[in-house]
Amino acid sequence: MSSNMISIILPQHLRTLAHVGVELELEVEGPVTQRSVLDALEARYPMLRGTIRDHDTLQRRAFLRFFACEEDLSHESPDAPLPAAVASGAEPFIVIGAIAGG
Questions:
Q1: Could you read off the pLDDT of 50-99 as tens digits, one per residue?
Q2: Which of 53, 19, 17, 40 is nearest to 86 (CA)?
Q3: 27, burial (CB in 10 Å: exposed 0-12, middle 13-18, buried 19+)
């Protein structure tokens, strides 16, 4: 099985929780999808479990969005392949805290 080095950018509150800088690199085994990236992230940083996805359903938390290559991937299938630029490490997978209000 192949592995890829993926670049991930997290929002400030998750960087603080995981004790990481603005951008981190993570090795992802197999196909590069939202699910495989988040599985690898939670395996490496267990304190993030339940913060990005619900513990039980593994659904994205309502106030978080996923972006890559200037595209909002928040509503894409968790098993859909991420863009090739993300899989190659050229572009980051970005988790953004959504802003709510009126």
A1: 999 998 998 888 889 999 999 999 999 999 999 999 999 999 999 998 77
A2: 40
A3: exposed
pTM: 0.91
Domain boundaries, the chain: 3-97
Per-residue burial over 11-23, b = 16 or more CB atoms within 10 Å of its CB, e = otherwise: beebbeebebeee
Give the CATH architecture of domain 3-97: Roll (3.10)
Phi/psi of residue 52, nearest 5 degrees: -100, -40
31 dihedral zone (left: phi>0; alpha: psi -120 to 50; beta) = beta
